[in-house]
Hints:
Blueprint: H1 3-33, H2 36-52, H3 61-86, E1 101-102, H4 109-114, H5 121-128, H6 132-143, H7 148-155, H8 159-176, H9 184-200, H10 203-209, E2 210-219, E3 230-232, H11 234-247, E4 251-256, E5 259-264, E6 272-279, E7 282-289, H12 292-297
Parallel strand pairs: 2-7
Antiparallel strand pairs: 1-4, 2-3, 4-5, 5-6, 6-7
Helix pairs in contact: 1-2, 1-3, 2-3, 3-6, 3-7, 6-7, 6-8, 7-8, 9-10, 9-11
Amino acid sequence: xxxxxxxxxxxxxxxxxxxxxxxxxxxxxxxxxxxxxxxxxxxxxxxxxxxxxxxxxxxxxxxxxxxxxxxxxxxxxxxxxxxxxxxxxxxxxxxxxxxxxxxxxxxxxxxxxxxxxxxxxxxxxxxxxxxxxxxxxxxxxxxxxxxxxxxxxxxxxxxxxxxxxxxxxxxxxxxxxxxxxxxxxxxxxxxxxxxxxxxxxxxxxxxxxxxxxxxxxxxxxxxxxxxxxxxxxxxxxxxxxxxxxxxxxxxxxxxxxxxxxxxxxxxxxxxxxxxxxxxxxxxxxxxxxxxxxxxxxxxxxxxxx
Length: 305
């Protein structure tokens, strides 16, 4: 075997090892960025960096790639934050992170890894409020058990200071992100009752299903719509639910970020995605994505009942 053949074999072996880590890396990036396309970009950039590195010196490839993806995501978050600061009109109050949608009884293995700890949109919304370094420290340490000694160099802080970053993020998450019920049977009952009440215009039934302090976040993009973009309180949200039912008469149940949700599918094309956060049998948060460009960007197949 000549030098070129040996190098080619080594390259193929490295690519195969990288592919083994890809689902995990995308899960890290998704929690960091809340964007499926940007997560894919971050993972691909990590491959480029690996292919240019002296991989023979890497003893723990998974750990090395995790920290590299973390560093890439941190840079992307900082760039994103700068763009927001430059745009006074851009508000994150109504931004809904990319949902992970599936239907049927078969769950894609990569989606299982992506949502291994059932990361809902409500949690991702809270993570969006964190400073980039806080988000990195929390995601890598609390969600993926990366030691603070390994996280610290990425955020250019001491391990003790990095621990404080994660602690601040943890307090924010615990204080803001609702704890959902994870029983899919109960979820299906509540979501089904919600749809029936909305379609029937049963305002009292909607009030029974909604937590008094429920939040509805509707990311409409540039879409001209009668939907309010961020509303709070059961009475107002119940009124919005009736409006949504009229705007999307053809809806189907689906799994959205591992939970029972709803997709709007006129003629089988997905035009909207709604995720429900249910606690103690009541809906505490609804996240609705109806931005046409972003829904198309999810690349979802046609719905087949």
